[in-house]
Structures are given as C-alpha cells and as structure tokens.
C-alpha cells in the first residue's frame, strides 16, 4: 500500500458510515489484521494534487450510494465520480441472500490448501466463482428494500431504477459466524407500568470471559464446527444456543427449530457474507427485547427466565451451568443513538481508548457505557463496531 494511502487511513481511523475501524488490530499482538476491503474516494485533482481523500469500508460505501439520494462523500460532501459510482453499484449486495453456502460438496475441498487455492482462482475468474456455487437468487429477491421508502422516489442522477444483479461475491472459507441481535425498543416497564426508554433501539452485547476473569463484550457467535455446521447461519445459531441458551451440543434439528423460530418472530437476514478472514454475521431484529426474551422460552432445554430479571441480574447472568470454566457471562441491552451524520441510521455510541504499553505498543479498544452504576465501561471485542452492526442497525 502506498505510504500516502496508509497515512490517510491511519489519520481517518474509522469508516464514517459505520464508525468501525478501517483497519482492525489484533487485540493481543497489536498486529494489523486487514479484515475489510476498503474503498477510496480520491479527492485529488490536477488543481489540488495534495487534497486529502476519504476512505470507507467498501460494503458500507456501496450501501450508502445505493440507498441514499446524494452521490456525495459522507465526510466532505464532494461529488462521487461516475466511475466510482459505477464500481460501487457493482458491489454485491448481500441483502437478498436467504440461505447460503451449502457446502456439503465442498467439505472435502476445504480440507486442504488446494481448496483455498481453487477458491482463489475461482474468485479471480471473470464473473467470479458463480459456477462453483448455488444460484444467488433467492425467494426474497423481490422483497422490500431494507432502506425503506427513502430509497425510492427521491430524484437522483444515478442509475438506480434497476438494481444490477451483481456477480456472486467471492467465496471465502467460513471459519467464524456471529449473530447481531437488535431490538426497536426494550418493551419493559417499571413497577408502576411506565415504559422504560421507549423508542430507543438497543443491541444485545454478551460478556466473553477472558483468562483474567475480565469480560469483553460483543455478539454471540464463534468458530465453525466442521461436520456440525452446514451453513454460516447454523454456525451462528449453534454458538448462540450454546453460549447464550446454555444448551449442550444441540443437534441439527434443534438448531433448525431455533432458526425457524427466530425467522417467525423477528427478522433474520445475512449481515456480512463470509469475508476474507472467514467471518460472517447474521442480523436479527425484534420488535422489543421483551418479545425476544419471551420467544426464547419456546426453546426446550434452553436457559429460561430472562424476562423479569433486573438489568444487574442480566449483567451477571451465568449462561452455562454445565462448564467448569464458562466462556460467557452476562448480557446487556445497550442503547443506540442517532448517527451523527446519516439521517435515520442508528449507531452504538462508543469511546475509543488508547493505552501505550511499556514496549511502545499501542493498544486501542472501544468501550460502551455500563448498564449499572459503579461498573467500569464495558470493553468491546475487536470488530464489534463495523459493517455487521451497521447492516443490522440499518434494518431498524
Ligand atoms: Zn464501515
Ligand atoms: Zn470526502
């Protein structure tokens, strides 16, 4: 990467659309992990060759130009060139994907390096690896746009009447999948029946225990288990069943039951298709937190009694009664706030902390306010704020 680009990315730090890091740093080593494909809006001109350009996650900017009337840089409001627009319009939108990556046939390929190489070649082929996978067109292709009425109707100079059917995205080997759960409001009431924080959406953060006993907060989810998880959705929901519902090795029928239940009671959509790091994320949106917690009661063998617990009890909830060394503890419904720039978009308000260690390494992390008094800010897991959260919150 040219030093100038690197300097610009460093200086900008976050993607102004999702407010997530442009570049993820490994929490323990401080090494850079390039998890995202970035897109540069080049603002230099012959008259102003030293103008600063702006950088975004490609998926964030692609969604932004597709669903907003203004074809301008979200930070500087400068026009986005037609050339950039046409590239961004071609970025695959994951919204129409229903079920993905049925990898029964690929199980063997994924085993060894040849499989990855084959995937790389397929991805490099013109038109992408479409031939390798199932059709991208799903039953929801004609469904309503996630952006709502604002996406249509308003005049713009961009060709957006017919959404181009993009080539199937590159397929990466899935290793890890997450569930990003958000609710339009809590739906809980005080003792005398007054609604708590009405109209304020929240996202569910779960505590992941470190060896130190401290917690880092993020979404339920985790490593794919070969031979058990047939799709990234099964991966995410199985992890949720184990981590949050406290179930011990739930079988595939149980996982399918939970998936159907979540689809029936809420909205379940792919948030981020498997990226180059093997991560994927699914969005769940429920009307209220109470409805979500009530729905979980319908799952036999799952933790019960979330409803009616205090915020503090949820913060200290022991999900696993089976493991001697539980990996997760506690959850919070963390309130969202309006996006500072993008109208109608919600964001998770965070603070960025920087600690310089003695060996000069700089540790950076995000925190959110704790749900109860006399508790330190909750430290987020790396990558919690980013495209998956942004995508989920764009459904609210
Ligand atoms: Zn972004
Ligand atoms: Zn700009």
Which radius of gyration do the C-alpha atoms yield?
A: 21 Å
DSSP, total strands: 16
Which small compounds were modeled alongside the protein?
A: zinc ion
Query: What percent of residues are in strands?
Result: 15-25%
- Please estimate the helix content: 10-25%
* Head-to-tail CA distance between termini: 36 Å
- Overall mean pLDDT stands at 80
Q: Tell me, briefly, the overall form.
A: globular
* Secondary-structure element series: HEEEEHHHEEEEHHEEHHEEEEEEH
Count of helical regions: 9
Could you explain the architecture of this structure?
Helix 2 crosses helix 3. The chain is globular. With 396 residues, it is of the alpha+beta class. It has 9 helices and 16 strands. A hairpin with a 6-residue loop joins strand 9 (267-272) and strand 10. The longest helix is centred in the middle third of the chain and has 14 residues, at 252-265. The protein binds zinc ion (2 copies). One zinc ion is lined by residues 41, 43, 54, 73, 75-76, 78.
